[in-house]
Design goal:
CATH class: Mainly Beta
Radius of gyration: 13 Å
Strand order of the largest sheet: 1-2-3-4-5-6-7-8
Number of domains: 1
Largest sheet: 8 strands, antiparallel, barrel
CATH superfamily: Avidin-like
């Protein structure tokens, strides 16, 4: 199992329906198979996520955040890990909003210690 504890992730790409940017930083914590994170930066004032890590390192989580327009946004995400040659982890994310319409998108974040 991939251990995400204490990893910091930053976005590489996001669809135009997302609000992440290169200024957004995610701080992951993991205990056993439970994942949680806090994040902020760019359009996102403060966010949290909580989810599960399976035996192959795949992530299933829910996220909530407040953006600069003081809107509470939420959704769910499934992330597929890719281990890069230099040891970093790239997460290929497929997400869907659970409020403000059910639009969906894809993003990529990369993490390191």
């Amino acid at each position: 199992m991939i251990n995400y504890n204490n990893l910091i992730f930053t976005p590489v790409s996001d669809t135009d329906k997302g609000e992440m940017s290169s200024q957004t930083t995610f701080h992951y914590r993991q205990k056993k198979n439970i994942l949680r994170a806090t994040y902020s930066g760019g359009e996102i004032i403060q966010g949290t996520l909580i989810g599960l890590v399976d035996s192959k390192g795949y992530l299933e989580f829910r996220y909530n955040y407040i953006n600069k327009n003081n809107q509470i946004r939420s959704g769910k995400c499934h992330s597929t890990p890719e281990i890069l040659a230099d040891g970093r982890i790239k997460l290929h994310e497929k997400w869907i909003w659970s409020n403000g319409g059910e639009s969906q998108g894809e993003s990529i974040v990369e993490g390191s210690l």
